[in-house]
Structures are given as structure tokens and as C-alpha cells.
Amino acid sequence: MSEYVERIHFLATPFDLLSEEKVLSMLSQPDLADLPFRYLVTPNSDHVVRNYTQPELLDIYERAWLSLCDSQVVARLARAKNYPIKEVVTGSELTRNLFESVFDAGHRITVIGCELRVVDYLKEHYGLSKINHHNPKMGFIHDDSAIQECCQFVIDHPADFVLIAVGSPQQEILASFLSSTSGCKGIGLCIGASLLFLSGQERRAPRIFSRLGLEWLFRLLQDPKRLWRRYFNNLNIFPMVFREKPFDGKASHRSLI
Predict the structure, then answer these.
(1) What is the pLDDT of residues 75-110, one digit of tens each?
(2) Segment 118-168, tens digit of pLDDT
(3) Kindly report the CA angle at 98 between 157 and 156, in degrees rounded to 5?
(4) Peptide bond between residue 55 and the one before it cis (omega within 30 degrees of 0)
(5) Which residue in 137, 180, 188, 135 sits closest to 158, CA to CA?
(6) 204 has which bridge partners?
């Protein structure tokens, strides 16, 4: 895989400058399962604010195979400071496109997280028979034995793709553990609630909300009791951007081999 990608940093979080079309093309390559485990993250404003205040998490994003901007809000604020984030690649849209245009009956897929009924829906609706599923206990990320159980499951069930759906930052932390565990292979995708949207367990925002950068508002209205603190905290991104210096033109070019 002799691909190269340009990476910049906005508010300390890394972002790779790739279109969704390019990412899907890369994920369609046939040799991914033969590579050591690598993972893809899609930081949004929640991730960016958290990384800014908890810099110990930043290394997880730095070591990601791909780190793609998931937020219209982040992209627009970045462009206001001349950062060249031209396209948003949301985890939910990327996941939908993978199921609809990349995955076929021959793909081996491991799902970490979600209820069994969601996985059963995916098998039936998309005609995928080679899906293995492990749902760790609540709070597993604070239990070394539970983390090792996840890693062993991935080793024991070799897959082309490992879909990690246990919420952030748990899923990114787990992806980092998997990438450091000998015997793990394939591409890990940290996808949050994407499978719930795909299976109809949760409603996704209409496209007009996404285009306007208001998907967060739609989700807040759906579940205000659970989400209001998160989105209130995300307002911290505005003073962070105010203090951020304009883009200096420096970017790194990384080989994805």
C-alpha cells in the first residue's frame, strides 16, 4: 500500500487531508487483512475539546492510520484560521458507505460493542455471514483483563475490518491497545453509534442538518438529558479557536505502508 497522506494539526488534534471517496478507495484494497492491525479515527468537536484538555489522549490519535475530520463545525472553524480542511468525513456516513458499497459476503468482519440484535440485522440486511461479535462489559476500559479479552477475540477471529462501537474515548483507547498487540490484523474503525443509525435503532440527523453543521443540535433534541453536558462543554472550542494561531503552512507527509 504505497499511499501517502498529508496531515495537519488543528487545536493539537491531527487531521489527514483526504476525501471520503479516496478513503473508500483505500479501504477497498484487497490486501488489508494481511497487514498488522491499524485503526481509523474520526475526531469531532467533542474529541478535539477533550484532546485539548487531556493531552495524554493525543498520542492515540497521532498513531492512528487515518484521522479524519468528522465535524462541519470543526472544519469551518479550522478554515477560519486558514487550515485546509476542505472535506468532512463522518464516521456514520463512512460506515454506511462501507456496508453499502464495499463489504460483500466474502469479507470477514468483527464487531466490538453493540447488542446482538444490531449485528443480526446487519447480517440479514446486507447478506454478510462472516461477522463475529464481542460485546465487552460496561466500564471494560478500566479492566485490564476485559481489554485483553477484546484483544484475544480479535486475534482468534481474524478479520478484514474490526468495527469498534463502544463510544469515545473507549473505542480509540481499545484501538490503540489492539495496534500494540501482536497477532492483531486488519483495519479497525472507531465508529461510535454508526451501527445504531444503520440498523434504525437510533435516528440520524436529516442531511440538511449535517450540511449546516447542526447534526449536534438534532442529536441533542433527541436525547437532551444524556447529551446536554457534552454539547455545553463543546462550547469551549470557540475560545480555543480564538487563541489558535493561523495555519503556518506546515504539514507532514506520511506513507501509509
Answers:
(1) 999 999 999 999 999 999 999 999 999 999 999 999
(2) 999 999 999 999 999 999 999 999 999 999 999 999 999 999 999 999 999
(3) 5
(4) no
(5) 188
(6) none
Task: Look at the chain and count its residues.
Answer: 257
* Residues pairing with 14 in the sheet: 9
CA distance 110 to 161: 6
pTM of the model: 0.90
455545553: which residue's cell?
232
Rounded CA separation 100/175 (Å): 24
Q: Is residue 4 within 8 Å of residue 234, measured between CB atoms?
A: no
Residue ranges of E strands in 20-134: 38-41, 66-67, 109-113, 131-134
Cα(17)–Cα(190) distance, integer angstroms: 18
Cell of 14: 491531527
